Amino acid sequence: MNSSKFNLIQYSAISACFLALHQNVRGQAIYTNIDPDLELDNNWESAGIDMNNDGVPDFGFLNRSFDFSTFYSYYSSHFEAIYAGPQSPNNEIAALTHVISPSYGGFTVYFPFALNESDLINEVLTFHNNGYQTMAYRYIQTDGDYFPKGGIWYPEVLDHFLGVRFIDTSDCLHYGWIRCDIKDNGRTLIIKDYAYEINCNTGILAGDTIGDTSTVNLEEINLLNVNIYSFNSD
User: Fold this and answer.
1) What whole-number distance in Å separates Cα of residue 83 and Cα of residue 5?
2) Beta-carbon neighbour count of residue 181 at 10 Å?
3) How many beta carbons lie within 10 A of that of residue 172, not counting itself?
4) Cα separation of 92 and 69, whole Å?
5) Is 57 exposed, middle or buried (0-12, 13-18, 19+ CB in 10 A)?
6) By C-alpha distance, which of 195, 200, 194, 193 is closest to 167?
7) Quick check: 54 and 79 in contact, CB under 8 A?
8) Which pTM does this prediction carry?
9) Residue 10, helix vs strand vs coil
10) Which residues make beta-bridge pairs with 149?
């Protein structure tokens, strides 16, 4: 795992990526329900999310596993991970960072936050553009011993949110969220729905499908035929 930029989707066909998407304007938010949910539970499965439906994926996801060995071990090892990554230099995911082996020059790994419903997604969060952002991972030796495992989404996190932001073709910076599950000890990713705020440089609450109503009066909201959407959070 390194910190070089890459395109998650280039490695395999997108799995049922844009099937049965239901997109609605609600207040100042664009909300998209993925029906059926996207599920990545096999090696090399990938998917892309096109936040603003312009035909270009903004964020990619990859389920990856592989075997490897090292010069200091008699055993081979197995690595498993779920990655998320921006698909454009202008897009970012809210994440924390960790530097591995800093005394030897080190390299940085990125761990996307698992935000709770109603957490505010705005400039206060730390966002990163790195392509390999690890939601969940684990190493396993062939003798059955476990090496490090982790990621904020490991081993199981249900109905939590990635915080994202992207810049559209009009140079408008949008904040948004993507609701996901991680299950099966970090081996299955389920992507359920997502939304973003229409207004530029305006934050959004995780799980919010209405958006910023400060510039919309109640009559306009009613004309949008708004439905209240709630999540069953664990």
Assistant:
1) 12
2) 19
3) 15
4) 33
5) buried
6) 200
7) no
8) 0.79
9) helix
10) 138
Q: Measured at the alpha carbon of residue 210, what is the angle toward residues 55 and 219, in degrees to the nearest 5?
A: 115
What would the two tokens of residue 109 be?
């790994």
Angle at 24 between CA 131 and CA 94, to 5 degrees: 25
Three-state DSSP at 21 gives strand
Strands 76-86 vs 92-100: parallel, antiparallel or unpaired: unpaired
Nearest to 86 by CA among 150, 5, 19: 5
Q: Each residue of 201-230: pLDDT tens digit? A: 999 999 999 988 665 444 443 433 433 333
Tens of pLDDT, residues 65-99: 877 666 555 666 778 999 999 999 999 999 999 88
**Closest CA relative to residue 128, chosen from 172, 179, 83, 169:** 83
Residue 47: how many CA atoms within 13 Å on its side-chain side? 23
* CA–CA dist 16, 167 (Å, integer): 25
- The token pair that represents 54 in the structure block: 């312009």
Q: Which helix (H) or strand (E) holds 84?
A: strand 76-86
Tally of helices (H runs) and strands (E runs) in the chain? 1, 15
> Which residues lie below 8 Å from residue 57, measured CB to CB, with a gap of 6+?
9, 14, 17, 48, 49, 50, 87
